[in-house]
Amino acid sequence: MKLALWSAIFVGVFALAAHAADTFRMAVTTSFHNSGLADVLLPEIRADLGLDVHVLVVGTGQAMKLGRSGDVDAILVHARAAEEEFVAAGYATHRREIMYNDFVVIGPNADPADVQSAANIIDALQRIAESRPRFVSRADDSGTHNKELSLWAKTGLDPEAFGRWYNEVGAGMGTALNTASAMNAYILADRASWLNFGNKNDLALLFSGDPALFNQYAYLPINSARHPHVKADLAAKLEGWLSSPRAEMLIDTYEIDSENLFVFNAQDK
């Protein structure tokens, strides 16, 4: 009886260990999570690879902190300059582009800053700064926040000098959009999060299409030479799937209201 009991316990522990060996920790951006695409991809990854991907939903800056400390096996983010520095510093083995969409300016339907008439994104932001309607910034060191700051820099304006109309929330894309909705404010968002956002109220997409608003997402496996415990074999396995025709079909056909949220652009190595 005791032998049978210990055998059952051993089998159970072994099964749990085997299951744990097929789990994978990946830090992803709030914009990717808020788009709803994770809900499409993760079950298919599990079905195709037997890989249970546990996602930590954070801003790009926090995702990189988790990667630097070896707390995740890979990151999926959207801030190219920071990603290239991350690879150069040896925290990731390489950077693999997977898909893209674009950033858009959201604001009140009445559009008091008249950004719909702007010639480009710099003109749109200058119009907002001149008319000083409410504006919400994520202010969370995310890829979206970094893009916003880089665009303000190109206008020659400094958000730190803005008055009370400029509202820093220090939060993810969903929370920031909810704040903008409650305040009837302007905000820079990624298209996918906006399309999947369910609390639009009086907000509308007012400006898009400038090439400067291009938004590339990339996959970075954490370097096992720096953190030997990370699952480099599973990272490679997942990367192969994310850059495969199977992923391409799922990404390119993911729609909300007949509008595509992402475009697959992974290239063979």
Termini separation: 56 Å
Q: What's the β-strand tally?
A: 12
Structural class: alpha/beta
Instruction: Round the Cα radius of gyration to an integer and report it.
Output: 21 Å
Q: Can you tell me the overall shape?
A: globular
CATH topology of the largest domain: D-Maltodextrin-Binding Protein, domain 2
**What's the CATH C level of the largest domain?**
Alpha Beta
| Helix content class | 40-55%
Residue stretches low in confidence (pLDDT < 50, at least 5 long) are 1-21
CATH architecture of the largest domain: 3-Layer(aba) Sandwich
Largest sheet: 10 strands, mixed
Determine the CATH superfamily of the largest domain. Periplasmic binding protein-like II
Average pLDDT figure? 91
Number of H- or I-type helical stretches: 11
The overall number of domains is: 2
